[in-house]
Amino acid sequence: MSKRSSILAAAFAVLSSTSASAAPTIELKGLQPSQYMQRRDRQPDVSSELATLSVDQRLRAVTDDDAVAFAADSAYPTTLKDEQRAQIRRRERQAVKVGALVSLVDVDDPRVDAAFIAAIDDIDPVVAQRAAERFGDRDSAAVVPALAKLASSSERSIDVRSGALAGLGRHRDQAALTALLSVLTTTTSPELQVAGLHAVELLGSRWAFEARRQEKLGASLRQQAVAAVSRVKFVGEAEERRVVTVARLR
Amino acid sequence: MRSRLRPVLHHVLLAAVAALPLTGCVDDDLVGDTGGEGAPTAALTVSVASGQAPLAVVLDARESTAFLDDDVLQFAFDVDGDGEFEEDTDDVGRFAATYAEGGTFNPAVRVRGSDGRFDIAEATVVVEVANPPRTADIDVDSDNDGTISPLDETVEDARAAAFLANVDDDNGDGQRDRDTGEVDDDDVAEVIVRRVTGLGGGRVRVAVTPTIARERTVLWQGEKILSDDTVDGGVIDGAGDNDVALRLEAKTGRTADWDGTVTITVTVEADGAVSTDVVTMRAAPVLFPSNLQKPKRLFVMDVASGRDNNRALLSAFAALPAGVELYTTDDDQYFFDRWMQDNWEVGTQLVPTKSGVKEMITALQLERSYGGQGLDAFVPNEWLGADRGFFYPAGDESSHNYGGNLEVSPPTSADPFGRMIYGGGTSTLSGSRNVDTMNDNQVGFLNAQELQAPAIEVSSEWLAVGHVDEWFQVVPDLSPDEGGRNFKIAIASPALARDVLVDLREAGQGDAVIFAGRDASYTVDQVLDAEEFNALNEAAQQRIDEQQAIFIDRLGLSVDDFRPVPVLFDEIDSGLVAAFNPGIQNLVTVGDRVFAPDPEGPVIDGVDVWQAATLQSLQDTDLDVVFVDVFESYHELLGEAHCGTNLEREAPTTAWWTVEQ
Lengths: 250, 661
Description:
Structural class of chain A: mainly alpha
Radius of gyration of chain A: 19 Å
Number of domains of chain B: 3
CATH architecture of the largest domain in chain B: 5-stranded Propeller
Oligomer: heterodimer
Helix content of chain A: 55-70%
Number of domains of chain A: 2
Distance between the termini of chain B: 23 Å
Number of strands of chain B: 43
CATH topology of the largest domain in chain B: L-arginine/glycine Amidinotransferase, Chain A
């Protein structure tokens, strides 16, 4: 039984990853239906396992649909309908791409930025949304411009754009806050307003800045956020959230 | 509501009564001797022996003779032949009666001598009715006292008689009895159509309305189905001979599109005249128990071997409170799908009967289909049986449909059966859009039961599995403050978990180990220094606080009704979170004992600091808290103890039919 992946487990696993040579096809235990179907969410979660592979292999898992071996049809219940099987396949592919990106967040390699930027433009909106969110965890100058552009793009879905806002919130620096507030104070989408407010709260997280031991920076960012958010007025759920956000950040 | 038919007799004293002294009369209460030596001899003739109503008949007793020639006889007539001599005519030996109703009557005269001795004579009058008012009359247990009696008629316009959805399997054929096409006397409600006197060539029909009720119920006369798909309804056999007992059952219970109400109309048609009577019945709701109700059976899968076996949990369950049965399911049979909490929610249907309240334990089979390879087969294939049935509303697939995402708040004065609580919402902890909730079919079903509705939605979409039991659970409070509630809500608290760790670090214990001995373990410092981990836990605490506020507002609770237990959350690839340490609030409540996941926190001087914080938090409940190792058996698979179990509990004692709906 594979262990569950987690943000902590992935972070520590990456430190111990080796530079194994790229295999033609990547085999992941966590993609076996007999394994992940026993999880309560019945979803594959493979970032920890991928983190033990080489950076090259992980990059391949993001960019090459054929890099990872998926289970044969016989590994699934025979009574599944075609539609169900297709949906499972889609989720497995999402899990591989996102899991690989998660495993790469802390890798200092410009190819990783490129992989994230490609992923936030993925044809699958679930991959794009989750990639955008996790891109914010990366310590790279490429993050804020890419996420700010995505968050502002009227051509992308609300869900994907909300992922970009979340990514900015997770990035937790001055540039991210500026970009986040720019979108938040100009968008007319109530969904994006709510998402943006959540992201601002996350950006200003006291616990996060304590972990970073940068409480002063946190206080400064929160102060700026309160000033900006206090100047806007939304309606409905977004306005209710705005009041909560201001109270939380003060 | 019709009026009961009673014969109406018009009596006219034919002759003027002479003003004679009454000294010779004997009070009817006095007992005299009838017949024999010294008694008069009664004789009675009728002027007309038969005819159409209204029929005027002279009852003539003047041929009666006294024992002594000079004795003056006293006459009393029983016009309708019921044994009561209601017409006392003194010494007048004739009486004129009018028979307004049809039937065969045996009028009688009592002739009494002055000494009290008397004799009785009878005659026969047959009265025919050209167009008798054949009256429709249908009775059900409208007052829900378990029997059909005259009292029911007094409330039948205002009340609905309860009946069951026949979704169990009494005959053991593996199918719900509603599907067998045979009447099932165990689970049907009686409907009585009263005999229609003088029906002759007329007919009696019974119709079930509205259309959806006709589709969802079956009304039987013997083996014959009367509730066919026509508005006119079915014709009742033998309605002119005797009262006819019909039987009603539902194929489904209350649903979003049917509130369970059935109107049954009986119609008598004879000689161009029509009479109707109407009663209302209503399918019993399915009521779901809270954790406060007494446990009866505890279900758990026996995962016998492998790294993820659940020996520890089963060992703990070896010491269940008396009277609680442990029911284990086979792991191989169900493809190791150990999430016993998720495939069903156990409830109950209750109806009053002659012998007391009948219970049909009724499960809500939840939408969790995965090709039949898992516990989705458990309820229909293994659990179904006599007085054990299920409903299956179906709907779109989402883990938000599972039983772990469905809890019941304890009864309060405002909600005597508690309220259903489920999880859903629109965003991850980061604010990224994630719209997910329980499907409409299931929520509609819950709300259709009414007594525990409207169901309350709280946020759970931020969790990887998406269940409310990932952050709260109701536990009994065995020693509440005077006037206080008899429960608390154990609620996951990242703040408490973190505070304990911060205290350790400040005490120089930053290198203390969390999950010691496990494949992945962490020091206190590592956890407190993980930026995004902490950011998300702060967001988790805020999200939980918001849900607590909803509970307080919607259920009338206070902050003191909650008991925080130390639980941190960790993000998985999907951007959602699951419990980082075994989620303590995801516990199993069995009477006065709770089996809580062992949080496996740092151990200082032999004491697990998270266990200690838990015990302190729950101390005033007087619960017996048993910590159980579920780390590899459940926790690493994104579940905990509650997720792996289910419980049948005793039915509520409050009769739902007495509660306004």
